Fold each of these.
Amino acid sequence: MKKATLFITALLSMAVTAGAKNVAIETPGNTLVVDVTNGQRPMFVYYGAKLSASDMANLKPAAGFSRNEIYLPYGPAPAAEAAFACRHSDGNMTTELLATGYDVTSDGNSTVTTIHTKDPQYALTVDIHYKAYNDVDMIETWTDITNGEKGTVTLTDFYSATLPIRRGDVWMSSLYGSWANEGQVDEEPLTAGEKVIKNTDGTRNSHTSHAEVMFSLNGKAQENSGQVIGAALCYGGNYELKVVTDDSEYHRFIAGINADNSFYHLKKGETFTTPPLALTFSDEGLSGASRNFHKWGREYRLAHGNDLRRILLNSWEGVYFNINEENMNQMMGDIAAMGGELFVMDDGWFGGKYQRNTDNAALGDWVVDKRKLPNGIENLINDAKSHGIKFGIWVEPEATNTASELYEKHPEWVIKAPRREISCGRGGTQLVLDMSNPKVQDYAFSIIDNLLSKYPEIAYIKWDANMPIQSAGSQYLSMDDQSYLYIDYHRGLEKTLKRIRKKYPDVTIQLCASGGGRANWGLLPYFDEFWVSDNTDALQRIYMQWGTSYFFPAMAMACHISATPNHTVFRTTSLKFRIDVAMAGRLGMEIQPKNMTDEEKALCKKAIAEYKEIRPVVQLGNIYRLVSPFDHKGLASMMYVSDSKDKAVWYWWKTANFYNQHLPRVRMAGLDPTRMYKVRELDRIDLNPLDCEGKVYTGKFLMETGLDVPYTNEVEWGKKTDWSSRVLYLEAQ
Ligand code: DGJ
């Protein structure tokens, strides 16, 4: 993440009070045009590829489409789904927002255009911001809603933004799923009516659906061609994305906080800021839009987005809660011997009066369980040091169990509606702590602060969150403000995370939430990566990692090699297949190495060494998805290409195995057609090298024709499996 975005150095500011038509908001390759005329409703004009000045001068808001206000309020404006609605201090339910001017500020990385609007009858103002980046095609848009009225204004709808999309043959790609099946791709044409994607979990927001979508403007989505608009709501809480297709020429995409049961009393003088919606346009298909999200994410939103990630072993699937000094040391030794760089001790290390032997006790009692680890964390850190690796640790700061000393001491800290019983989750005893309460925020901060101040050698924290909000109410918020819970929970969480990052900017923190429950750009500024899913089955991971890669870069996606039969789906896959799938993200291991054979360990050691070679291309390169597993062609294929196109890594995974199968040859993408690339197979297990091994091909050939690879891995008879995959490293000569 670039520091300059946090600490604005040179501020160039321009205030424009006179009305102006066609205000252009521009990135290197995108233009968004808004009509801002003082005393009039600000109207959407254009969003897409960069416009020339002469073409822009010819544009005006589409005649007769008065619903295309950039932030349509409920009331005097045309009857349509509104982006904003409130009850004014005198009870009036309608709002009119007319432009009063705009200004432009710049910080070296981006330019923020703010369009000021005001209700002509009320002292309610809405500032609509557009932040356009100078080096990546991304525009973030959000609003500041300020109550200048004499009394309280109640906000009932407060989305972040509206984007009209011209009708035609527009398709929407979105992600859906569930625990252990996150990131599934759904594609559908936009038809008449309303399509709503929303989340109501309260704490996590990406298991069942995602706050990001892509719109393909020229028919069914293509990976590497066609015009695509991508949108990501940068928010960790309940969201709502909707596309309204009524009788006008435009679909209207509206995105923001899900206001269900969350009306907000805006006190006199108070400002409510909505979370940013990040927008990108690409004419290079879905993969092009993904590359924009990845670049923007790495530069501006992900913690340490320019630093390579360590290869780690996480203890969870290896030993679960059965942590002790001996097995921790043994696992550290094993991962170090395989070339790994970090060991993470997962759940089960803590507890005093209550022991954490399963998931029903001790959350909140963050003291080392001396029965399991008599020599404490310092001893583990020393062990890690002696193996030459770093040490990391698991916590779940937002939760407790009824069986915990914390709950006994602070029953008033848990989420619970007034006059209702508590409602428990995981293990039948888990409860969510009320992050809207400043005392709980201080407590959550203190968990991390205690660990990191006492053990500064801790290099990695895995921050988990395993429960939704149940019995939705707060013991901290007043009866009048109960509807703040969902929003104030996330404000409290963010405040805590900001405090942690201020004091501990360097520590690596993983965002985990029962697997991939928190893959969102709202929380990632405080985290280095997220756990894609609790399901580590390589076959299902191909699908999950595919969908997740639409919006998130490989360096942020934790992908671990685990045991077979897989602990979630009980599928048995080959180790080679598991390695090749995990190598497409931030590689790690989630296994008890003690149970592996020497041959398996040797294969992993080789894979780790080879991953180190390709790590910069995978983690900092550009994604080109080639054949989607969701197209059910029997295979999936994708690649990463370095910025200078001198190196690339190509993945080929077979998703189904039949005799006499006919698979398509995969054409590569993103290479320099004029350069020569030498091919080397990684993670090789075949007895004989591939035909292409060591040969040199033009980028043109690889992209127009592609390489044929055998459909099976040719190994000794007794070692054959029904899985096959290939990873090729291409280096320009
Ligand atoms: C859920 C996470 O997704 C797992 O990786 C593991 O950390 C468990 N929680 C521990 O309880």
Amino acid sequence: MELSYRPRRLRRTPALRALVREHHVRPTDFIYPLFVHEGATNEPIGAMPGASRWSLEGLVEEVGRAWDLGIRAVVLFPKVADGLKTEDGAECFNEGGLIPRAIRRLKDTHPGMTIMTDVALDPYSCDGHDGIVSAEGVVLNDETVAILCRQAVAQAQAGADLIGPSDMMDGRVGAIREALDAENFEHVGIISYTAKYASAYYGPFREALDSAPRAAAGKPIPKDKSTYQMDAGNGREAITEAQLDEAEGADILMVKPGLAYLDIIYRLRGESNLPIAAYNVSGEYAMVKAASERGWIDERAVVLETLLSFKRAGADLILTYHACDAAQWLRQG
Ligand code: PBG
């Protein structure tokens, strides 16, 4: 054949492929999500093989391991004791609570590690919702935002670098920005869960924290989060959310889940100049783990290909439970 252009020429050797590769994944792209509890031992999480609820000591060790692998950011999630859960989730702004203590500890032991926190009521709510549920079963917006602001300030006080509102209440980014600034935390950033969908992919996470919506005596509890998290059928609405978050002062925009919403990452990349984060969520992790345990897929190849897909779609950073494994594989080349 007389072909003027043969794309296979640049695929011929590993060195040529590396030379023209457009996108790369590096350990510094990762934010490593970690679960922490009050227990003295680390508890494996059933639906997330390889992940644990860490004791404070275990957390320090695991963060040290991540640091040694080149990871420079973690996000912390608390498994809160049932006895501390209330309708208004007030434990979330307790300065002596689990998360503030974990942050202080990590800032002592690993001062260079970026610490991100999650802002939402679900781990602290006896109803298992991200906001306060009224007697009529409505998740209240403005009342919730007032509490989230206190939660964000408590986290900043403990030393958090990036505050991550995952609650999807309207107006929370602006309110949190104002609350942080009022307490002289203007250097603390906001990584907003901008386009967070009401997704079935969060199942294993809710098992890890025992934080799923649960029935309560005397009031109707919504079974899912669809009155505040986004509808899977919507794309344009993600752009609206991005515009609002940007106007309210968000520093980084996030899309969650990542894999089923790569189109949303791509669209936000075109709409905003802010960094974009992809959350490779618990259900995505569990599927890969389950299939690779059965020998049905090659875990290493699938994980690295998936992480690259987030970068190609336009994400700058990736929250992923695969962070340590991936960092190790990348190092091996
Ligand atoms: C809490 C929160 C959730 C996740 C992150 N923060 C669960 C939810 O909204 O129900 C999910 C993370 C994952 O599945 O990996 N608001």
